[in-house]
């Protein structure tokens, strides 16, 4: 009798556990869990078009998304780097890499959309883009341009218009894998190590967003794996700052 019931019990247990797992997945990520990321292009995707994941930015100002994430950026074509593993991204390594492969030592400069700059012996082009998602997926960017997707360093710049001075804000960023951020020419945040792209994975010390024009500059570096990032500002209560206008010039 017991032998006949054993297989039936196993089936019932499997069905119950499957239902629990399915229900948990349907609820979505809970507090502290990662925000789901858009899928990477399938292997057979040969379209290589920016419009799949980005919109060409216009001269009209753009707001942040509802959660304060900054989606408008000037993005430079990738600097190819010989990186075989991401655990080399110490503070010293990142500072040296960003200083060596730098398009300008003026951290308040705003490049022009479509212009080319020289980084080392490479001529690289700037693109003004709006990401269609809260994060900016640099794998999708480099794939669309048919540029190197792994072992890359990518420079980023955006212009933030603030309607009033906001003190005690923090820059909150997530990236894959290492990155560095400057606000109005001053270092704001360094994310070293082999990281996954998790929103608000690192936050800066208290900063001030000036009334009017602010320049946010970043650099993201990755070896194996998909490079991407997300950035927003949090006020002193930890609430996302959303009353910002974004431009690329």
UniProtKB/TrEMBL annotation:
| Taxonomy, superkingdom | Bacteria
UniProt keyword terms in alphabetical order: Signal
| Signal peptide feature range | 1-26
The protein's name is Acetylxylan esterase
Q: Which organism is it from?
A: Runella slithyformis (strain ATCC 29530 / DSM 19594 / LMG 11500 / NCIMB 11436 / LSU 4)
